Amino acid sequence: MEYLEFELPIKELQEQLAKCQVIGKESDVDVTQTCQQIEKKLIATKTQIYKNLTPWQRVQLSRHPNRPYTMDHIRALCGETFLELHGDRGVKDDKAMVGGLGKIGEQSFMIVGQQKGFNTKTRQYRNFGMSNPEGYRKALRLMKSAEKFGIPVLTLIDTPGAYPGLEAEERGQGEAIARNILEMTRLKVPIITVIIGEGASGGALGIGVGDRVLMLENTWYSVISPESCSSILWRSWEYKEQAAEALKLTAPDMKKLKLVDEIIKEPLGGAHTDRETTFLSVQKAILKSFEVLNKLSPKDLVKQRMDKYENMGVFKG
To answer: Is 214 helix (H, G, I), strand (E, B) or coil?
Structure first.
C-alpha cells in the first residue's frame, strides 16, 4: 500500500499494529490488549483524517496510484461481457480513450472512458489518460452507434485534460471536443456520466454531457487543475492548495452548485482501500439512474438534458 503525505500517521499506526501482532505470534507474551488499543487509535485517526479532508487532499486521493481506473471499473461492472471497439475511422485508435459494449446486470451499455496507465510503460502507452482528437472522435462514433441501436451510454471520466500537444491542435482538438459537447446534448438515448478520478477541463467535458452526472466522493471536476491555476495566477505551483480551495472543485462543491446530480460514497480512506465496495456502489448508482431515465421518451430526454445545461450558472436576484 502506498501512502500520501497526510496519511503518514495511519501508516505509523498500521506498522505498530503489525509489529505488535508479530510479537504476539512469536512469543508467549499476551499482546491482545495492546493490539486492541492500537486498532482503536487507528480507527479514530482514520476517521479524523478522512472526515476533514481539504480540497487539495481530495485531489491527491483522486490521483492515488492504487485507485481503480476506467478498465478496472469496466471489468468489475461488465465481467466477461465487455467488447472493446477501436478506432475513429479517420486517423488511428487512441489508447487514452477506451470504449465498447458491455452489460451491467441485464442491461447493455455503450461504455466510453479515459484510461490511465499504472506503471511507466502503460502510462506512455495510454498517454497518461490525455486523449487526442481521434479519441474524442472515436467516443462520438461509439455514442452515435449506441443511439442508432437504442443503447444507453455510460461515460467514465478520469483525465488530467485533453492532450495539449501541437499535433493534437493541428488535428482539431478544440473542434473535436466542441463537436462531442454539441452531439451529446441532442443524443436520443440516456447518458450517464460518472467521474471516477480527475475531471479536468475540456478533456473531461468532451465525454461529460450527461442526463445524470455522478461523482465519486474523492474526485474533482474543474475547468483547470490546481497546479495550472496556481502557475497562472501566482507564477508558481506553490499555491496549489489555495487554488484547489478557491476553484470549488470537490464533489460537495459541485453538488451544491448543481453541476452534478449525485455523490457516490467511497469507503473510508478512498476507493482504492476497498475496491469491491466501490464497484458495487457505482453499479447501484448507474442502474438507479438508468431506471429513472429509461421511463422518458427520446424527445423528453433531450429536452430535459438541454434545460439542465441551459440553467447552469443562472442566478436569480
So the answer is: strand
- Cα 90 from Cα 121, distance rounded (Å): 26
What digits encode the pLDDT tens for the residues 143-196? 999 999 999 999 999 999 999 999 999 999 999 999 999 999 999 999 999 999
Q: In whole angstroms, give the CA distance from residue 282 to residue 23.
A: 40
Average pLDDT over residues 295-302: 96
Instruction: Answer whether 94's CB lies under 8 Å from 88's CB.
Output: yes
**How confident is the model over 87-100, as a mean pLDDT?**
95
For the chain, give percent helix, strand, coil, nearest 5: 55, 15, 30
How many degrees, rounded to 5, is the angle at CA 200 between CA 229 and CA 281? 135
Query: Would you state the cell numbers that stand for residue 250, as one nine-digit string?
Result: 470537490
Helices (H), the chain: 8-26, 32-50, 55-62, 70-78, 120-125, 133-149, 166-170, 173-185, 201-205, 226-234, 240-247, 251-256, 275-293, 298-310
Residue found by looking up cell 475547468 in the block: 223
What are the pLDDT digits (tens) for 258-272?
999 999 999 999 999
